[in-house]
Amino acid sequence: MLKGFKNFLMRGDVIMAAVGLIIALAFSTLILAFTDNVINPIIARAQGGKSAGLGWQLGQAGNKATYLNAGSFISALIYFVIFMAVVYFVIVLPYKAIQARRGVTVFGDPTPVKTCPACLSADIPEAAAKCRYCGTDQPATPARAAG
């Protein structure tokens, strides 16, 4: 039972989904800070108000609604960068090492591709002998001709 659970967790798509969700959550914090502290004051400038901190007052002094709070946005940006570094060093790198021991390459460079001269599909693997879309024979690449 535990081996099945381990195999489920070690599937690449589960880890990719988890990393994607974590990045999305952190990015949503960044976007929320940007909209709350940069965009909203610009829009609220027409209304008036008061505030203080790292930023610029766009209306009356002390009006929080028209204060462009750059300090809060910079804090959110720093949070995002630190959070992504933690995700990379705590989740992605160990996962890459575990998968490498299993003989699986994850988060690697994309494989080389070529364009089919007949149908112009740009995602044909470089070593392909035929186009996967139109079936046209592909010209030999140096790597395929030598092997």
From TrEMBL:
Its placement in the membrane is given as: Multi-pass membrane protein
Q: Which SUPFAM superfamilies match?
A: Gated mechanosensitive channel
Q: Where in the cell is it found?
A: Membrane
What species is given as this protein's source?
Answer: Streptomyces bingchenggensis (strain BCW-1)
Q: What is the official name of this protein in its record?
A: Large-conductance mechanosensitive channel
Assigned keywords, A-Z: Membrane, Transmembrane, Transmembrane helix
Q: Which InterPro entries does the UniProt record give? A: MSC/AndL, MscL_channel
Q: Which GO terms describe its molecular function?
A: mechanosensitive monoatomic ion channel activity
User: Is Transmembrane given among the entry's keywords?
Assistant: yes
Predominant subcellular localization, coarse grouping? membrane
TM ranges: 12-34, 73-93
One Pfam family it belongs to: MscL
